[in-house]
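Input chain follows. Return C-alpha coordinates only.
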Amino acid sequence: MFLKDRSQQTEQLDNFSLTGTQLQRTLSELGHINWLFGNTRTLKGAIRKEIQAAGIQQATIVDLGCGGGDVLAAIARDATNKDYEVRLIGIDGNPASLAFAKVQWNGIKNLEFLEADILSSSFQLPKCDFLISSHFLYHFKDEDLPTFLHKQLKQVQFGAIFSELDRHFLALQLFKFVSLLLGYSKMTRQDGQTAVRRAFRQKELQDILQDTHFSQYHLAYKWAFRHLLTIYCSHDDLLE
Protein backbone atom coordinates (compact mmCIF):
# COMPACT_ATOMS: atom_id res chain seq x y z
CA MET A 1 0.00 0.00 0.00
CA PHE A 2 2.11 2.85 -1.24
CA LEU A 3 1.83 5.92 -3.46
CA LYS A 4 3.36 4.99 -6.80
CA ASP A 5 5.00 8.18 -8.08
CA ARG A 6 6.77 10.95 -6.17
CA SER A 7 4.94 14.26 -6.28
CA GLN A 8 6.83 17.28 -7.59
CA GLN A 9 4.53 19.75 -5.82
CA THR A 10 6.30 22.22 -3.56
CA GLU A 11 5.31 22.98 0.01
CA GLN A 12 4.22 26.42 1.16
CA LEU A 13 7.15 26.41 3.58
CA ASP A 14 9.48 26.29 0.56
CA ASN A 15 8.52 29.94 -0.04
CA PHE A 16 11.36 31.78 1.70
CA SER A 17 9.37 35.04 1.75
CA LEU A 18 6.71 33.51 4.01
CA THR A 19 6.35 35.42 7.29
CA GLY A 20 3.90 36.21 10.08
CA THR A 21 1.68 34.36 12.50
CA GLN A 22 0.70 31.70 9.96
CA LEU A 23 4.35 30.69 9.55
CA GLN A 24 4.96 30.75 13.31
CA ARG A 25 1.92 28.57 13.99
CA THR A 26 3.01 26.10 11.30
CA LEU A 27 6.54 25.87 12.72
CA SER A 28 5.14 25.25 16.21
CA GLU A 29 2.82 22.55 14.89
CA LEU A 30 5.61 20.92 12.90
CA GLY A 31 7.65 20.78 16.09
CA HIS A 32 4.76 18.96 17.76
CA ILE A 33 4.48 16.59 14.77
CA ASN A 34 8.22 15.84 15.01
CA TRP A 35 7.69 14.81 18.62
CA LEU A 36 4.39 12.98 18.11
CA PHE A 37 5.46 10.87 15.13
CA GLY A 38 8.87 9.94 16.48
CA ASN A 39 11.20 12.10 14.40
CA THR A 40 12.68 13.97 17.38
CA ARG A 41 13.21 10.79 19.41
CA THR A 42 14.69 8.96 16.41
CA LEU A 43 17.22 11.67 15.58
CA LYS A 44 18.38 12.46 19.10
CA GLY A 45 18.83 8.76 19.85
CA ALA A 46 20.72 8.20 16.61
CA ILE A 47 23.07 11.14 17.10
CA ARG A 48 23.84 10.13 20.70
CA LYS A 49 24.64 6.58 19.52
CA GLU A 50 26.97 7.83 16.77
CA ILE A 51 28.78 10.24 19.10
CA GLN A 52 29.38 7.37 21.51
CA ALA A 53 30.57 5.12 18.68
CA ALA A 54 32.99 7.81 17.50
CA GLY A 55 34.48 7.94 21.00
CA ILE A 56 34.20 11.71 21.33
CA GLN A 57 32.74 13.89 24.08
CA GLN A 58 32.20 17.01 21.97
CA ALA A 59 30.57 17.23 18.56
CA THR A 60 29.59 19.92 16.08
CA ILE A 61 26.24 19.05 14.52
CA VAL A 62 24.62 20.79 11.54
CA ASP A 63 20.88 20.48 10.82
CA LEU A 64 19.89 21.13 7.18
CA GLY A 65 16.47 22.71 6.75
CA CYS A 66 16.13 23.21 10.50
CA GLY A 67 12.84 25.14 10.36
CA GLY A 68 11.89 26.20 13.87
CA GLY A 69 14.89 24.45 15.44
CA ASP A 70 12.92 22.03 17.63
CA VAL A 71 15.09 18.99 16.79
CA LEU A 72 18.29 20.86 17.66
CA ALA A 73 16.75 22.01 20.93
CA ALA A 74 15.89 18.41 21.78
CA ILE A 75 19.46 17.31 21.05
CA ALA A 76 20.77 20.12 23.25
CA ARG A 77 18.59 18.95 26.15
CA ASP A 78 19.65 15.34 25.58
CA ALA A 79 23.33 16.35 25.60
CA THR A 80 22.85 18.05 28.97
CA ASN A 81 21.04 15.02 30.40
CA LYS A 82 23.51 12.46 29.00
CA ASP A 83 26.66 14.47 29.76
CA TYR A 84 28.14 15.13 26.34
CA GLU A 85 28.83 18.48 24.67
CA VAL A 86 27.51 19.78 21.37
CA ARG A 87 27.84 22.81 19.18
CA LEU A 88 24.65 23.06 17.13
CA ILE A 89 24.14 24.88 13.82
CA GLY A 90 20.75 25.12 12.14
CA ILE A 91 20.57 26.14 8.47
CA ASP A 92 17.41 27.25 6.70
CA GLY A 93 16.48 29.43 3.74
CA ASN A 94 13.69 31.41 5.39
CA PRO A 95 14.92 34.30 7.58
CA ALA A 96 11.55 34.49 9.34
CA SER A 97 11.82 30.82 10.36
CA LEU A 98 15.28 31.46 11.76
CA ALA A 99 14.08 34.54 13.64
CA PHE A 100 11.32 32.42 15.19
CA ALA A 101 13.85 29.73 16.15
CA LYS A 102 16.22 32.24 17.74
CA VAL A 103 13.44 33.57 19.97
CA GLN A 104 12.17 30.09 20.86
CA TRP A 105 15.55 28.71 21.89
CA ASN A 106 17.50 31.79 22.98
CA GLY A 107 18.31 30.17 26.33
CA ILE A 108 20.28 27.31 24.78
CA LYS A 109 24.01 27.85 24.63
CA ASN A 110 26.16 26.75 21.68
CA LEU A 111 23.16 26.94 19.33
CA GLU A 112 23.30 29.17 16.26
CA PHE A 113 21.29 29.61 13.08
CA LEU A 114 22.51 30.43 9.57
CA GLU A 115 20.50 31.56 6.56
CA ALA A 116 21.31 29.84 3.26
CA ASP A 117 19.61 28.43 0.18
CA ILE A 118 20.62 24.79 0.59
CA LEU A 119 19.40 23.84 -2.88
CA SER A 120 21.62 26.43 -4.54
CA SER A 121 24.63 25.07 -6.46
CA SER A 122 26.81 27.52 -4.51
CA PHE A 123 25.80 26.18 -1.09
CA GLN A 124 28.65 24.85 1.02
CA LEU A 125 28.12 23.05 4.29
CA PRO A 126 30.24 24.32 7.21
CA LYS A 127 32.72 21.78 8.56
CA CYS A 128 31.15 19.59 11.22
CA ASP A 129 31.35 16.21 12.92
CA PHE A 130 27.81 15.16 12.05
CA LEU A 131 25.19 16.29 9.58
CA ILE A 132 21.50 15.69 10.29
CA SER A 133 18.27 16.54 8.55
CA SER A 134 14.65 15.47 8.57
CA HIS A 135 12.12 15.61 5.76
CA PHE A 136 14.63 17.30 3.47
CA LEU A 137 16.12 14.85 0.98
CA TYR A 138 12.87 14.70 -0.98
CA HIS A 139 13.51 18.28 -2.11
CA PHE A 140 16.01 16.82 -4.58
CA LYS A 141 15.39 15.01 -7.84
CA ASP A 142 16.67 11.45 -7.78
CA GLU A 143 19.48 12.23 -10.21
CA ASP A 144 20.67 15.30 -8.26
CA LEU A 145 20.88 13.77 -4.80
CA PRO A 146 24.13 11.75 -5.25
CA THR A 147 26.00 14.88 -6.40
CA PHE A 148 24.70 16.88 -3.44
CA LEU A 149 25.68 14.18 -0.95
CA HIS A 150 29.19 13.82 -2.34
CA LYS A 151 29.81 17.55 -2.30
CA GLN A 152 28.46 18.25 1.18
CA LEU A 153 29.70 15.16 3.01
CA LYS A 154 33.28 16.15 2.26
CA GLN A 155 32.73 18.66 5.07
CA VAL A 156 31.58 16.00 7.56
CA GLN A 157 34.02 14.16 9.80
CA PHE A 158 32.03 11.15 11.00
CA GLY A 159 28.61 10.74 9.43
CA ALA A 160 25.27 12.02 8.21
CA ILE A 161 21.90 11.00 9.62
CA PHE A 162 18.76 11.58 7.57
CA SER A 163 15.28 10.96 8.97
CA GLU A 164 12.90 10.74 6.02
CA LEU A 165 9.24 9.99 5.53
CA ASP A 166 8.01 6.92 3.67
CA ARG A 167 5.66 7.52 0.74
CA HIS A 168 3.09 5.12 2.13
CA PHE A 169 -0.70 5.30 1.78
CA LEU A 170 -1.21 4.59 5.48
CA ALA A 171 1.23 7.37 6.43
CA LEU A 172 -0.85 9.81 4.42
CA GLN A 173 -4.12 8.65 5.97
CA LEU A 174 -2.69 8.67 9.49
CA PHE A 175 -1.45 12.24 9.07
CA LYS A 176 -4.79 13.39 7.64
CA PHE A 177 -6.67 11.93 10.61
CA VAL A 178 -4.33 13.13 13.36
CA SER A 179 -3.87 16.63 11.93
CA LEU A 180 -7.64 17.13 11.74
CA LEU A 181 -8.16 15.65 15.22
CA LEU A 182 -5.58 17.99 16.76
CA GLY A 183 -6.85 21.05 14.90
CA TYR A 184 -3.68 21.84 12.97
CA SER A 185 -3.80 24.79 10.59
CA LYS A 186 -4.70 24.37 6.93
CA MET A 187 -1.12 25.14 5.93
CA THR A 188 0.27 22.45 8.25
CA ARG A 189 -2.25 19.90 6.98
CA GLN A 190 -1.55 20.67 3.33
CA ASP A 191 2.24 20.76 3.65
CA GLY A 192 2.29 17.56 5.70
CA GLN A 193 0.35 15.69 3.04
CA THR A 194 2.58 17.12 0.31
CA ALA A 195 5.66 15.98 2.24
CA VAL A 196 4.40 12.39 2.32
CA ARG A 197 3.62 12.46 -1.40
CA ARG A 198 7.12 13.79 -2.20
CA ALA A 199 8.93 11.26 -0.04
CA PHE A 200 11.07 8.29 -1.11
CA ARG A 201 10.28 4.62 -0.85
CA GLN A 202 13.01 2.43 0.63
CA LYS A 203 13.91 0.86 -2.73
CA GLU A 204 14.27 4.31 -4.29
CA LEU A 205 16.72 5.38 -1.59
CA GLN A 206 18.67 2.17 -2.07
CA ASP A 207 18.86 2.77 -5.83
CA ILE A 208 20.11 6.33 -5.28
CA LEU A 209 22.76 5.10 -2.86
CA GLN A 210 23.93 2.65 -5.51
CA ASP A 211 24.77 5.70 -7.64
CA THR A 212 27.10 7.05 -4.95
CA HIS A 213 30.55 5.94 -3.84
CA PHE A 214 29.50 5.48 -0.21
CA SER A 215 30.57 2.02 0.88
CA GLN A 216 29.24 2.26 4.43
CA TYR A 217 25.67 3.19 5.18
CA HIS A 218 22.70 1.82 7.10
CA LEU A 219 19.06 2.18 6.14
CA ALA A 220 16.51 1.27 8.82
CA TYR A 221 12.74 1.55 9.09
CA LYS A 222 11.40 3.40 12.13
CA TRP A 223 8.04 4.27 13.66
CA ALA A 224 5.94 5.88 12.24
CA PHE A 225 6.50 5.27 8.51
CA ARG A 226 10.02 6.65 8.62
CA HIS A 227 13.39 5.81 7.06
CA LEU A 228 16.55 6.44 9.05
CA LEU A 229 19.54 6.64 6.73
CA THR A 230 23.01 6.85 8.27
CA ILE A 231 25.95 7.41 5.95
CA TYR A 232 29.39 6.88 7.47
CA CYS A 233 31.92 9.28 6.05
CA SER A 234 34.94 7.48 4.67
CA HIS A 235 36.90 10.20 2.94
CA ASP A 236 38.41 7.60 0.64
CA ASP A 237 34.89 7.18 -0.75
CA LEU A 238 34.52 10.92 -1.21
CA LEU A 239 37.72 11.16 -3.25
CA GLU A 240 36.28 8.92 -5.97
